[in-house]
Design brief:
This protein is about 35% helix and about 25% strand. The chain is of the alpha/beta class. Helix 9 links the parallel strand 12 and strand 13. The termini are far apart. The protein binds S-adenosylmethionine. S-adenosylmethionine binds next to helix 6.
């Protein structure tokens, strides 16, 4: 099978975890880039990347790379590509763009020029043209234009890979599935210890944790991937990848709670849809009253950031999260993501680690708090003695 360059796109801050996932699939020449990881692989690896990677949003297959010294050059260069290799007249296409170029201040203009080049080539050669369908195209083409440098790729994923296929409901602020998986993998957790999300909302972190612990690929629930509509789709190869033995027994407990009855009902429906009802425990509970069921474990949570709350209430909420952790969760490690720095400070614990992440457009800090019995100083002394 021939090998080619593949690019996996992700969120800022998750590049290194994604590179680790890609290496584990056996890729060659894995290179961390800005919000992306590139690697070399064959068709099977491209299918596997779509099916297995938890922290990838898109898997792109670059088909052309060129310089655009003048605006007109985009159309001229794009028209040199033999588009009939990738698209047929009866099929539809859409163009996604990432453009940062003084020549193309209006990013739509770059997409428009690329569309014209494709359509004009078909018209000149056959008198007919493929149609454009932005919502549900047969083939998605990606244009990446940084300054004068342009890369055109085929999008092998189709819809973004965060759309796993298990979600049947969502609360007010569900976390993106790729971000949730990345947050868990950043901690190094793979199911070794009990897992708790005490503000679980629609259950995204719980479901992603269960998938990681059980070794279930995130693509297991997807109805389709973009590459299934490509002319070179190898159905038996993909079936082999999908039909592997994936599910393993887990020994840890995964549990979630939330103050909202409505959110717990939504989480329950999502967990059922992912066939994980036997793996994840749920209850309605204010974090203030939460009591651990085991002597240690990991807490990963995404509390409200205060976007719709009064500043005083956010300080009170984070202070009570801190009090619960300090008073009852000694022996646990807690990881909290928030865009509210005032809130995070009100937890009243010194973070052992801080990682910068984005939740949508919101710049967030993802902080680890190690919860020891007694003071931090005593814990350091005990750790040193061991
Ligand atoms: C940002 S949402 C979490 C979203 C979740 N990660 C998801 O993917 O759907 C924050 C959640 O905290 C819950 N919450 C707020 N105050 C709480 C409290 N005192 N105790 C427990 N949960 C609380 C809210 O009901 C809400 O579901």
């Amino acid at each position: 099978m021939s090998k080619f360059k593949i690019v996996a796109k992700t969120f800022a801050g998750l590049e290194t975890v994604l590179a680790g996932e890609i290496k584990a699939l056996g890729a060659e020449s894995v290179t961390v880039e800005r919000r992306a990881v590139s690697f070399i692989g064959d068709q099977a690896l491209m299918y596997k990347a779509n099916f297995h990677l938890r922290t990838a949003l898109k898997i792109l297959k670059p088909i052309a790379e060129f310089e655009v010294p003048k605006r007109e050059d985009l159309y001229i260069e794009a028209k040199k590509i033999p588009w009939s290799k990738y698209l047929a007249i009866g099929k539809s296409f859409a163009i996604d763009s990432t453009v940062q170029s003084e020549m193309f201040v209006n990013t739509m203009y770059a997409s428009l020029k690329l569309k014209d080049a494709i359509v004009d080539q078909f018209r000149e050669e056959t008198g007919k043209r493929p149609s454009v369908n932005p919502e549900n195209p047969d083939v998605r083409i990606n244009i990446y234009l940084m300054g004068n440098h342009c890369i055109l790729s085929l999008d092998s994923s189709g819809e973004s890979l965060h759309k796993r296929g298990y979600r049947v409901g969502q609360g007010d602020a569900p976390i993106n599935e790729v971000l949730a998986a990345g947050m868990i993998l950043l901690t190094g957790w793979h199911g070794e210890r009990d897992f708790i999300d005490p503000m679980c909302g629609s259950g995204t972190l719980l479901i992603e944790a269960a998938l990681i612990a059980k070794g279930i690929p995130p693509g297991m629930y997807r109805k389709s991937f973009g590459f299934e509509l490509w002319p070179d789709f190898n159905e038996s190869l993909f079936a082999e990848i999908c039909n592997g033995e994936y599910e393993k027994e887990i020994t840890c407990k995964i549990s979630g709670s939330d103050i909202s009855i409505k959110d717990i009902a939504i989480a329950k429906a999502n967990i059922k849809s992912a066939s994980l009802s036997k793996v994840v425990e749920l209850k309605v509970e204010d974090i203030i009253n939460l009591v651990p069921q085991s002597p240690g474990g990991i807490i990963i949570t995404n509390p409200p950031y205060g976007e719709r709350m009064k500043p005083q209430s956010i300080i009170e909420l984070y202070t009570s999260i801190g009090n619960t952790l300090k008073n009852r969760f000694a022996g646990f490690e807690a990881w909290i993501i928030s865009s509210s720095l005032d809130g995070l400070k009100s937890i009243g614990l010194k973070p052992a680690k801080k990682i910068d992440l984005f939740n949508g457009a919101l710049a967030c800090s993802y902080r680890c708090f190690e919860l020891f019995q007694g003071t931090h100083k005593q814990a350091v002394i005990i750790k040193k003695r061991l």
